[in-house]
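cron nightly-structures :: item 1 of 1
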Amino acid sequence: MQFKNVIGQTALKRDLIREIQQEKISHAQLFLGRAGHGGLPLALAFTQYLFCENRGAEDSCGVCSSCLKVNDLQHPDVHFCFPVVLADNKLCDPLIPRWREQIRKEPYFNLYDWNKAIDLKERSTTIGTEQSGELLRKLSLKSYEGGYKVMFIWMAEQMNPTFANKILKILEEPPAKTLFFLFSEAADKLLITIRSRTQIVRVPKIDTDELSKFLMLSHQLDPQKALALSTFSEGDYINVLDAIEHAEEKGSYTEWFIQMMRTSYKKDVHGMMKWADEMSRESKERQKLFLSYCLHMFRLSILTNYLGIEFVNASEAEIKFLKNFAPFISGNNIREFIKTFNDGFYHLERNAQSKILFTQLCFQTMRYIHVA
């Protein structure tokens, strides 16, 4: 992975390159941000640049022996630790081939994608106690090639407390030339002692323009569609991939949104309950995409009110609905809508009962939509 293959994040790439060039590399870095912002690809590019034998001013050469080994995820001094289904595997090593396959296929992936890749039942995953012993053993060995040793701990919030406590000492006092890269979407789920021993690297949303340009080049999308997808995704490339994969379903999201808003506006309790029941039967991923779509439509409504419908990138059906719906979203209720639907997404990710959740969303929408 080279920096040129990482979408956007220009300023962060520059900072990471400067760390190596100035030989001021923090021994433990926590890449904090959603997986779709690119923390893992950034760290892989950083590692390749660090090991590169002919590095340039802005990127690794990509062709030297070290670059080829890092790019192929086969470098003997680069190790990976990630969540596993403990009932099947206590250690990560048996799943390393699957891990390599996932990154080669698509380096932008989240915990849900990983769970699907390793377990047909999509059971919960954990970084368990046994893996701490394997991590310490690997890092106690000398570097195979005489340089740095790098340990990736992906989705660090999945560490169980025993694992987290067992690696505290080596995080604080690692062997010479040993680097840790931790990745997390939820810093509040990490032990304070883990956070205090790492340098936090905040991975922001991908810039809309940079993401649009990437989509035009890599997915051959026209400028308007690329911009619409970039705006909808909120700078999260995984959201873009989901939207492209389910492109044929977008019409369903529009219809669900229109139905939800209309029944809530009319205070049609029977209609709202029926709608919530139908939504609860959809897959969890479609439910999450729908809530993301709702947030997108609320933002488009505000843009319509302030800039005019001609400045909105949306489908014909969406524009037709927004012309009448947008006036009901204003400064009086937009914060409530955004917070409520963001909270809904948060609770859905944590396995809230979907029928109750969507019923509650309908009643809250009914309340907010009448205070515009």
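cron nightly-structures :: done
The longest helix spans residues 284-307.
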